[in-house]
Q: What sequence folds into this?
């Protein structure tokens, strides 16, 4: 299975210069947030593949114009052909906003989903990174400690996040934490399972 991961910026390769044949073997698209609805709608329509998404901190426009043909997996575990994907959107609260959370508020979201997480999951799809694992140092980009607890308790094969742009500072796209591979989905990335 091949998964196209997108987050934070519209990639010219996937939009203005889209070559559908180049992405013909993609089975699923995952959005880690902060992308325009029309971009997500475009991707699922042109590639004719399902697109699952969570909210980034700038995705308040989804309330009025959600991405058409796409599935929001915020605060749930979605089963795609036996692959279990848990979705938790948003980032650290830094100036107030619908998809911004204190550590305590994110912990509450995680506890609220404990029943859905009970059977485990293969991929944790988030907007924000986990604390100390590819996050930033400023308030807006500090990761959540609660995500580390999720990684420790459920040991998913992958964690996919956005939010921390690769051009902010020296960033690694791929990190490893125990048995979990953490992927920063900034721009786009293809994950071959």
A:
């Amino acid at each position: 299975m091949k998964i196209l991961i997108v987050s934070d910026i519209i990639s010219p390769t996937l939009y203005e210069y889209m070559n559908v044949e180049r992405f013909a073997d993609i089975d699923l698209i995952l959005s880690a947030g902060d992308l325009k609805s029309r971009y997500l709608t475009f991707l699922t329509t042109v590639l004719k593949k399902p697109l699952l998404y969570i909210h980034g901190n700038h995705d308040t426009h989804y309330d009025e114009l959600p991405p058409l043909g796409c599935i929001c997996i915020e605060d749930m575990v979605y089963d795609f052909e036996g692959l279990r994907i848990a979705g938790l959107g948003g980032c650290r609260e830094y100036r107030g906003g619908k998809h911004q959370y204190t550590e305590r508020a994110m912990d509450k979201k995680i506890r609220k989903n404990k029943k859905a997480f009970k059977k485990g999951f293969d991929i944790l799809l988030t907007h924000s990174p986990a604390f100390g694992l590819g996050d930033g140092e400023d308030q807006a980009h500090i990761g959540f400690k609660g995500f580390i607890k999720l990684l420790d308790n459920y040991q998913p094969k992958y964690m996919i996040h956005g939010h921390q742009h690769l051009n902010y500072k020296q960033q690694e796209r791929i990190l490893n934490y125990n048995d979990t591979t953490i992927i920063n989905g900034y721009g786009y990335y293809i994950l071959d399972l």
Summary: The longest strand covers residues 2-7. The chain has one domain: 2-192.
